[in-house]
Amino acid sequence: MTIHIGAAPDQIAQTVLMPGDPYRARWAAETFLEGAELVNEVRGMLGFTGTWRGHRVTIQGSGMGMPSLSIYANELMTNYDAQTLIRIGSCGGMQPHVGIRDVIIAMTATTITSPSSGILREMNYAPCANWGLLKAAVAAAETKGTKTHVGGIYSSDVFYAERPDLDEQMVRHGILAVEMEAAELYTLAARHGRRALAVLTVSDHLQTGEALPADQRERSFGDMVEIALEAAFSEG
Ligand code: HPA
User: Fold this and answer.
1) Ligand 1 centre distance from Cα of residue 19 (Å)
2) Which of 105, 178, 109, 90 is nearest to 135 (CA)?
3) Domain range annotation of the chain
4) pLDDT band at 235 (very low <50, low <70, confident <90, very high)
5) Which residues line ligand 1 (CB under 6 A)?
6) Is the pTM higher than 0.85?
7) Which sequence positions are flagged as catalytic?
8) CA distance 194 to 23
9) How far is CA 43 from the centre of its chain?
10) 104 near 91, Cβ under 8 Å?
11) What are the backbone angles phi and psi of residue 208, rounded to the nearest 5°?
12) In what helix (H) or strand (E) does residue 198 lie, and over which residues does it extend?
């Protein structure tokens, strides 16, 4: 048990999928895992452990934003034995060729501030994905035929941003999408020698104002969960 995770040490698998939304953790566990058991409900941040094709997997909510994810990812890495951590979540599209429902596999995640800024200080650190996971996720997405983009994303501290000039620079510099967690996950994984990746589904588009209707979310999000699971276990 940790301050924020009530599971016993052996109740958390070495592979952890991390959606922001605890209810999405429950949905993914019920939909994709066999024998899923609730292993955490501290503060309602649900976590489940079960198996996928015989492999043990935990699906643990991270909450929204880097400070919240940082709490769970830190505890999973230092108090449990999480070796592979894959964020699954939604993002806002930034480029004209990125469409609603497309999957984004984040090679790198740019940020202005994160919980790690305090220790990185003047360093313009480039948080990046684990190469083996990234390669395997791209292969899984290609096999599925999911429309996928691989490249840089932006991890924001605010959902309601008020910097149109920053959005403009992001678009100009090829940022595919914006979300709020990946940069800190990648930075923590680097610090602790773990593997991390973010596989995201475009739920809305910042340029066009389009948004995925609620009733279509589950099917679209299913591809992302399967890509994450296949990536986690593809290289042994
Ligand atoms: N901004 C930040 N995070 C997001 C967005 C967004 O527009 N859409 C989904 N996650």
Assistant:
1) 14
2) 105
3) 9-232
4) low
5) 90-92, 156, 159, 178-180, 203-204, 206
6) yes
7) 204
8) 26
9) 20
10) yes
11) -95, -15
12) strand 195-205
